[in-house]
Amino acid sequence: MRIAITGATGQLGRLVIEKLKTQVPADQLVALVRNPAKATDLGVEAREADYAQPATLGAALAGVDKLLLISSSEVGQRATQHHNVIEAAKQAGVKHIIYTSVLHADTSPLSLAEEHRATEAELKASGVAYTLLRNGWYTENYTGSVPGAVAGGAFIGSARNGRISSATRADFADAAVAVLTGEGHEGKTYELAGDNSYTLTELAAEISRQTGKDIPYRDLPVADYAAALAGFGVPEGFAHGLASWDADAAEGALFDESRQLSKLIGRPTTPLATAVAAALK
């Protein structure tokens, strides 16, 4: 059984490979990356595979049985790039594709969701066995701003009182490993989210508790939040995206209480307090 992971030098991909190596012989793992020279530290075979360069994908997928297709980071180009991988996987005889989608992709108002819906539909029509891992928000998407919030004296956003059921990258990596190494997941769709939801006000309160400082949550209009992010150096288009996703969170787009993630990984998801503590180190 040979398992390949796309985007293997990304933050999620690296975690998946490290966790897989504890359960699967390293010689059965393949890291698919744009630049194999940057993957030498992974300790597994690395093959050139560029989502946007179909000519690289056929050889990269030769002999692969299971493929973890980690969604591309290039918003706006994802549907085409994922199509390239799925077509190459079909030609190479890949037996099972596991895809990292987004929480409630079929109904989500997130602007990100449309490309995920397109890829999910293509997978279902591909004739290849598939599993959809509809990943919720990474807790790190918010805790990455913790140091800045402490320095600036407030945590800012546009999510109002929306409840967010996030989980850490490590939690989502464990879910991918569970499917890659387990049985009976073909044709399944998993809505993956943290066990316990929180508001950004509650996140700010946790930061305050751990630092001993008063770090309130300051809710901003979407345009103002986007402008603030741009002022911090976030590219303008991405800043507007982040702000709009916060606005969607205010309407419940990042909330889920099914606890499918903890059931899949066989343990509770990482508590918010633990993630905040890691961000403060």
UniProtKB/TrEMBL annotation:
Residue stretches in coiled coil: none
InterPro entries in alphabetical order: NAD(P)-bd_dom (IPR016040), NAD(P)-bd_dom_sf (IPR036291), NmrA-type_oxidoreductase (IPR052718)
Signal peptide: none
Annotated EC: 1.6.5.2
GO terms assigned for molecular function: NAD(P)H dehydrogenase (quinone) activity
Residues covered by the NAD(P)-binding domain: 7-181
Entry keywords, A to Z: Oxidoreductase
Pfam family, one: NAD_binding_10
Name by which UniProt lists this protein: SDR family oxidoreductase
Record carries keyword Iron-sulfur: no
Organism: Hymenobacter endophyticus
